[in-house]
Amino acid sequence: MTRPTTAMRRAMAEAEVGDDVFGEDPTVRRLEEETASVLGKEAALFVPSGCMGNQVAIGVQARRGDGILLEEFSHVAYVEVAALTALLGLRLLPLHGDSGRLAAETVAAGFVEAERQGPIALLELENSHNWGVGAVYDREALRRAAAPARERGRPVHLDGARLWNASAATGTPPAAFAEIADTVSVCFSKGLGAPVGSAVAGTQALIREARTLRKQFGGGMRQAGILAAGALHGLGHHRERLIEDHRRARRLAEAIAQVPGIRIDPATVVTNIVIAEVMPHERVQDLADHTATAGVRLLVFGGPGRFRAATHLDVDDAGIDRAIDAIATAARALGLGRP
Q1: Phi and psi dihedrals of 45, rounded to 5?
Q2: Is 317 exposed, middle or buried (0-12, 13-18, 19+ CB in 10 A)?
Q3: How many Å apart are CA 125 and CA 155, to the nearest integer?
Q4: Residue 301's pLDDT is what?
């Protein structure tokens, strides 16, 4: 939902460009080099979307017919399943997690059970977790979750679309998370505010393969430096401010927890995602429609009666005040929480 800032637009307008299909766009190359450096990887590849980043990363580490272990409500399992099954011919083997986070014991048991059905190519993890109210693995928990794959010589892919938020929430550098995985995807168009783009990072050899698969998926771009410049600006200027998004999300959660008919535990909100439950469930769309008339957009999302609100660089403290007032006003108008 973010819009590029004035400074980001200027950087995009002034970007030096070339043909990225031939590796000749200097701004794309700078973005890829900087992203690889921040993540502590040998190389990175600019891709149009986070979905494509996940798919090319998984695709170069798995072969048709292989299984993928992942959490049942991960973005890959919930949104990207068709690409992985229909296009890549993979089998998705979901495991139950705690707000999207997998325990080592669950992963180990998953390998034992899944390997009876065929070869398992890799383990996929997500940090922070979209459907898990932005829940975060700390570094040690992520290492433990990855350990059963490591013990079996299987690679790990980390969906880090919101890794910047996980880093801001924990104080852990992105590279400290990324080193636990063989490949990691990151998004520039969410917390960092760029209009388009993600990246996947790993070894030089894997990224060479990923570039080929990106082309096969239709992801080759020409003068992509205009887009890369926005991502590069966000990477350099918008990471430190993410803690403000987290603070505002917690304030929103604490306020709406007091609204009759809205259920949420503010302690679960550690990044920029707020997911709350409306009682009765069938009024959730009415609530979202009502707040939309006040300029506050809520996404009906993630289960019966639930909506999501996400803070970002376009939402300041006054915006949070408006959101709190709009939700409380809508709840009263709809009679939520009445016997």
Answers
A1: -130, 125
A2: exposed
A3: 11
A4: 82
Question: For the domain 6-237, what is the CATH code?
Answer: 3.40.640.10
3-state SS assignment for residue 195: coil
The domain made up of 242-333 has a fold known as: Aspartate Aminotransferase, domain 1 (3.90.1150)
Which of 142, 159, 196, 152 minimizes the C-alpha distance to 73?
159
Domain limits, the chain: 6-237, 242-333
Average pLDDT over residues 202-212: 97
State the Cα–Cα distance between residues 57 and 51, nearest whole angstrom.
Answer: 10
- Residue 11's Cβ-count burial label (10 Å; 0-12, 13-18, 19+) is buried
Q: DSSP letter string over 31-100?
A: HHHHHHHHHT-SEEEEES-HHHHHHHHHHTT--TT-EEEEETTSHHHHTSHHIIIIIT--EEEEE--BTT
Residue entry with tokens 């959660």: 253
26, containing H or E segment? helix 26-39
Residues paired with residue 159 on neighbouring β-strands, in sequence order: 126, 185
SS3 content of the chain, % helix, strand, coil (to 5): 45, 15, 35
Average confidence (pLDDT) over 133-137: 94
Backbone angles phi, psi at 305, to 5 degrees: 75, 10
The token pair at 267 is 């302690």
Beta strands in 153-229 (DSSP E): 156-160, 183-187, 198-202
pLDDT tens digits, residue range 11-50? 999 999 999 999 999 999 999 999 999 999 999 999 999 9
Q: How far is CA 90 from CA 60, 82, 216, 338, in A?
A: 12, 10, 17, 48
What is the tens place of the pLDDT at every residue in 144-183? 999 999 999 999 999 999 999 999 999 999 999 999 999 9
- Cβ atoms of 53 and 47 within 8 Å: the answer is yes
Rounded Cα distance, 325 and 166, in Å: 29
